[in-house]
Design goal:
209 residues, alpha/beta, Rossmann fold, Arc Repressor Mutant, subunit A, five-stranded parallel sheet, 10 helices, 5 strands, elongated
C-alpha cells in the first residue's frame, strides 16, 4: 500500500529535493501535494480527491507559521498525520508543533534513514520519538504510573511556551520546586528532555490541549 505524503515549506528548492529523496528512500512513498505557504497548502488539501496520509510541515514559514497550519489541519483534516520538519530545535518551537497535533518533530539535518523511519512510524504507529525509542500506545494504567496533582499541574503548564521560571511564578513555588517536578516526571515517563515529556504527556492523554 502506498504511503501518500504532503509537504509544505516555503523553500521551493528544498521541497523539490525532498520530494526526490522521499521517492528514492522507499518505493511505498509518493508525494501527492506540496505548497510554499500554509494558505495555499490548506486550499490544495481541500480540493484533493484523496488526502495524504502524512504531511511534513516547516515551522518557520513566511506568513502562516507551521504550528498554525498544523492546528487548522487538526480541525479540518484530523485523519491526516502531521510531522514537523524544521531547522529550529528550541523547546518552544517543538512544543508549539507537538501541541498543534504533530506526531514527530524532525530537524532538516536528519539523514534519509531517519526520515524513512519517522514516516513509517507515524504512518503505522502514530508517533515517532526522536530520543531513540518508539513507544507503543499504552494506557496510563498499563504503565502503572502515579502522578501527584501538582505534577499534573506542572505538566500542563510545561506543554505551553512558558519558561520554567514563568511556570514557577504561576504555580507560586520556587524554581527549585519546579526542577523537582521536572526531574520526577522525567523519571516516571522515562524521558530526558522537555520535548520528550510533552510528547509522552500527549500520547498518554495526561493533558487536555
Amino acid at each position: 500500500m502506498k504511503v501518500k505524503i504532503g509537504i509544505v515549506d516555503d523553500d521551493r528548492l528544498f521541497v523539490q529535493a525532498l520530494t526526490v529523496l522521499i521517492h528514492e528512500i522507499n518505493d511505498r512513498f509518493t508525494v501527492i501535494v506540496d505548497a510554499q505557504d500554509g494558505e495555499t497548502f490548506l486550499a490544495r488539501l481541500g480540493a484533493l480527491p484523496e488526502l495524504p496520509d502524512v504531511v511534513l510541515i516547516d515551522m518557520s514559514m513566511a506568513g502562516m507559521k507551521g504550528n498554525a497550519v498544523a492546528r487548522v489541519m487538526s480541525e479540518r483534516f484530523p485523519e491526516v498525520k502531521k510531522i514537523a520538519l524544521s531547522s529550529l530545535d528550541t523547546d518552544i518551537d517543538v512544543i508549539l508543533m507537538l501541541t498543534a497535533g504533530c506526531r514527530a518533530y524532525l530537524l532538516k539535518s536528519i539523514d534519509a534513514k531517519e526520515l524513512e523511519r519517522a514516516l513509517l512510524s507515524v504512518f503505522e504507529k502514530e508517533y515517532y520519538h526522536t530520543e531513540g525509542r518508539n513507544i507503543d500506545h499504552r494506557r496510563l494504567a498499563e504503565l502503572d504510573l502515579r502522578f501527584s496533582d501538582r505534577e499534573l499541574a506542572f505538566l500542563k503548564l510545561a506543554c505551553s511556551d512558558r519558561t520554567y521560571r514563568q511556570i514557577a511564578h504561576e504555580m507560586y513555588v520556587s524554581e527549585r520546586t519546579v526542577d523537582g517536578y521536572r526531574e520526577s516526571l522525567f523519571g516516571k515517563l522515562n524521558v530526558q528532555s522537555r520535548v520528550g515529556m510533552v510528547l509522552e504527556a500527549i500520547r498518554l492523554h495526561l493533558v487536555d490541549l
